[in-house]
Structure to design on (201 residues):
């Protein structure tokens, strides 16, 4: 039994924080897990910048409403879901992801949640579990699934390396250079073919 685990941002939809950085003209918010491997540190940094500028959940959700899935992402996901079970495992938050899941036809997503004050200020965040992507893949394996995983960032490496087959997708030159052992693809057709091959072996 195969289950494919996919990252969300940078793989199926554009990076939410980069879009918000552009919308607000705050370049410091462009930093993502491609740049900072420590997610806890990254989120505390982001929350500090939001507080400094008086921005909250409402403003971020207004930007998210303008984001569409990457060209071909929905078709890729539809095709993949016809071949095997698929779970999106993301370090994003349910308050961000829900509108994007609607545009992708409601695939299953495991993500985290934000702590939001009544005035809309983001005061903190609650992670589902430690090392959520790797922990989830190991849990799926413990109940009899072989996992296939793909993502683009540092926080995807654990689940990619722990899976029966793992692939980098639309990753950075730095991450690809640091992990030459991981097959790296740039198009959905290439990734779909690689997953199909892994399932048939």
């Amino acid at each position: 039994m195969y289950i494919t685990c996919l990252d969300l941002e940078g793989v199926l939809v554009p990076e939410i924080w980069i879009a918000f950085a552009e919308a607000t003209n705050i370049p410091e918010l462009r930093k993502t897990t491609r740049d900072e491997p420590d997610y806890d540190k990254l989120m505390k940094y982001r929350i500090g910048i939001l507080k400094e500028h008086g921005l909250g959940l409402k403003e971020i959700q207004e930007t998210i409403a303008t984001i569409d899935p990457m060209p071909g992402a929905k078709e890729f996901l539809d095709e993949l879901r016809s071949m095997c079970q698929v779970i999106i495992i993301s370090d994003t938050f349910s308050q961000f992801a829900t509108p994007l899941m609607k545009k992708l036809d409601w695939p299953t997503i495991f993500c985290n949640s934000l702590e939001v004050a009544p005035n809309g200020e983001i005061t903190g965040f609650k992670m589902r579990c430690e090392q959520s992507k790797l922990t989830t893949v190991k849990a799926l394996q413990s109940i009899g699934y072989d996992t296939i995983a793909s993502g683009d960032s540092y926080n995807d490496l654990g689940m990619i390396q722990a899976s029966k087959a793992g692939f980098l997708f639309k990753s950075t030159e730095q991450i690809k250079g640091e992990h030459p052992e991981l097959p790296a693809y740039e198009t959905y057709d290439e990734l779909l073919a690689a997953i199909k091959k892994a399932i048939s072996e």
About this structure: The radius of gyration is 17 Å. The CA atoms of residues 6 and 88 lie 5 Å apart.
